[in-house]
User: Fold these one by one.
Assistant:
Number 1:
Amino acid sequence: MKKYIVILTVTIIALAGCKRDFDAVNPNAPTIASFWKNETDATKGINAVYGTFYRTASLYSRWIYYHGILKSDEGFGSGGDGGLNNLMRFNQTNYNDGLTADTWQTLYVGVFRANQVIANVPNITMNETTKKRIIAEAKFLRALFYFNLTLYYGRPPLMLAPSQPKDVPRNATTTEAYAQVAKDLTEAIVDLPVSYPAVDLGRATRGAAYALLGKTYLQQRLYQQAADAFAYLVTGAGASTYTLTADYRDNFIITKENNSESIFEIQFNENVNENTDDDVNEGAINNTGTSIAQFFAPPGVGFSDGGARRWVVDEFLQERTVANAQDPRLAASFIFN
């Protein structure tokens, strides 16, 4: 009898000890219900939206530039990549092609993350000024993602709340999409700061929102509205924050990053331990760099996938400075003979 009592006691203790394990939240797999609790979570949430820039090579670390450069009159690619060549020739027969599909998908990853912040941070008890700023940052970033979706693809589905697996949103018109971009930016401007301390460089500012708002109006040929938005940077309250650098080359030199011409600058970093700009690969650590220089560079140095057409160089050569010298922007911008 004594033996059975001991066994029963041990069993009860074991079951009691297991109960907490089953109820505990797995910190490695947070859910909406378990995550959005405090200011630290809000900061992590908005940082994840910025993290979209580094998630794959499909945005500003590499591919997104090609959607504009290769379809323009100024640029071309000669590296031999079939997807890039088709893009350059407007021969888009396969919309699931990696370059096209990856940029689209990653932009919507950013939209999804921004929507999470916008929906959940208002319910967190935290410093109100910080809360408003974080929500404004999320609106700026969502606007940036939708600006690119509208610019490069046209008529994107507008998802303005956290999406569910079975959601099938309709395609917006271009006018509707740009109107939403302008709405997000106009609301963000109110709560975005003019600048940040060094530790927070790269976050969205009021000037960045005004600049993107101006570009949004330009795409719709709303020139007066664009001029009004840009005025903040040139003659308005932001004029003392943004000025031309003394040397145009400073905009392309790693030691001169975040200079007085920088309005919104993604904070890429060198990582000598990795050779990729694709941070979605869990086997590669902290790939927050960019490979765009190598892809643009000519054969022997790079892949020659983003060259400038000769007529652009010739235009610079024809027009001299007031001192009858070659335009210094030419050598800073192009490799040419």
Number 2:
Amino acid sequence: MSLEPHRWAVVSTIKAPNKDILNFAAHYLSLGATHLYLFLDFPDPEAQEHLEKHAHIRVTHTAPDYWQARGRRPQTVERRQIENIKTAIEFARRDDIAWLGHFDNDEFLHVPSHANVGMRLTRLDNDVMCARALPVEYLVPEDPDYTGPDQFKRLATPFARRRQISMRAYPEFGAKVSGGFLSHQVGKSFFRIVPELMAPRIWVLSQGDIRQ
């Protein structure tokens, strides 16, 4: 198997309104994704019809018979995501994809206009199996008439520094809201596609005794 180092794809398990699904797909295609592997966690014939018209989007409707063929339907969305990532890894191998990113439908990778995702991944050392994209979170304005630029916050990466900032900014509940983030703080990852057995998780890749 000879993988093109600049070819990358995205996998997502999606249950969202039609417009959100299409916006998600358009965003990652605009960034240069070679393929999208979308697993619809809920029937959406209209979205599926639009998506399947694109040559680089593979849509899988995870209907009851889909899970029945795999033994059973995992009860939690996290377990379904992991199973879908495993399936997408097989798709990626067949499509000569070098890197597979996992993102939810409300997670949009931000890339500077001059940057190229595929080339950035290509520059990583060969022993790097997982590349993480750290999260930023949208700040909702208190003023409903606010017309200024959108504001976002990101984490201070050292945990001790993050906790210090949290306690200073939010004295009453800073200990419970790390970095002021309401969502998860781990970020999402790109997995390097290799011939060996891969054990993906939602945020990381586990290979044998090594977790990266």
Number 3:
Amino acid sequence: NARPLVHGTNVFQDQQVTGRGATVKFEFKDEVKVESMYSSNRYNYSHVIDTVICSGTVPPNSTFKIWPADPIGTLLRCPWFAQDAIINIAVLKKGSDLYRRLKQIPVLHVKGGMPRLWKSSVTIDPSHDLASIKVIAADIENLNPTDYDKKPNPLPEYADDFLELKKQDGYKGACIWKGKIKVKDQVEPYRFEFLNRESGLYGRSNPIAPSLYDGMQVYFGDLHGQCYKSYGIGTEEEYFAWAKDGELLDFVAPANHYGGRVIFDHIHRKDLIEVCDQFYDPGNFVTFYSYEWNGHQYGHRNVYYSETPGEFYLSSDERANSIDKLHDTLGKQGIKVMTIPHHVNKFKDGSWARHNPQLERVVEVCSLWGNSETRGDQCVQAALKRGYRLGVVGGTDTHMSQAGRSPLGIYDPAGLSVIISDKLDRESLWESLYNRRCYATTGEKIILDFRVNDKMMGSELPYSGKCTISGRVIGTNPLQTVEVVRNNEVIKRFEYINSETLEFSFDDQDDFLEIALTPEIDLKEKFVFYYLRVTQKDYHWAMSSPVWILENGV
């Protein structure tokens, strides 16, 4: 009573899906014969079992069992991320052409597996004397939080730095340890390490560098993820909770492109705003109001609001059915709003055709879609060469409510945004993002400090006859290459570094007027731009926002 699937149609979405070589056994308690097919869509977040009743009658209150398996009998993989899996069931009655969902939808509660390592995150407080630390015992499948409740033991050389470390309820009730540690008065970056010998759990934190950024600090987050109400799975509550206590991020924003699974109305906006405010905790965790505008002709934009949530204008709305209309309508609200283009290489004509420099301050350069820095007329380098003043950020574009985590697996890169700011609150992060004090990584908490004439990434400064390029890189893995890029060409490359850190400084001796670019847009003065690109030996990658040198000043 089972057959291999060639192809099928997802009853919950209007797109074609392809089979994955699976067979399904669907068994009723009563004498009913069925044929079943299994399929999943191309993103692998929607799985469909289509069962046809061939003979017999299904009595009221019947029960059934499902065994999805491949042709040789191996069970399909259990969900690898800790999340509530919604099992939608719809019925197509004889003589009807419309699937109707059951009134009560079952939910599968998925928890983390066996603890395998300590996962931790350290964020320096604005005082610079203390830092906040969060630690969880994670499994190996997706670094999910687990039920392991033993206290993490810092290595002896770090024990005196811990002022407190208290157990709390974290993601889905899993154990999380939060506390404060003293920040060492030293120039060199360092980490914290944990080892519980009885369980074999080991882990080390992200690096911290208290002396960088002129009194500011780095904050890591994901500005691009989707949930069930978009084309994904998981609730907004799960998305924010995972970012805070699962991925241990500092800030997060969703980017649902509504109109996919559900018809958008203002209730969805209201619900998102309420959840966003519920999780906002200044000084500890920042959330932004946001959504995705997906006008395919003009490229995709994510729309972000700062302290005041504005309207969610979709591409189907007559007021925002072109990129010009979107920017005009957003601007008329009179509140702080920003749009961020993403996977710009995907659109041959639309990504930069209607650039708005007041609203588009940064571009998402990396995500699960890959890297958009180079290649093609719509890549980030092409926009920079035209004269656009764009900083860079990263985002996962996960469709699984797993902010900061690639939906393709823990060893696959996606994207993180890193913001350099003096405080961890909406206003401060927004100001830094608007002024391009930010950079992108493919998911690792790499630290970059890149300057031209001692001005931080994102700056615009007048040509003064001297151009000193300096930087500092603190990786999470040994560095493979560190490159300084000028006008899209590498002018300095450091290789075979064999270390997780690198510091450099040199003067660009080339004549400004000989290397300066002429803008192709409504800007008059010539310019030169520089940025930093880093690749680790584990192939994780980071890119700084540029610094611009202008012929006649800002």
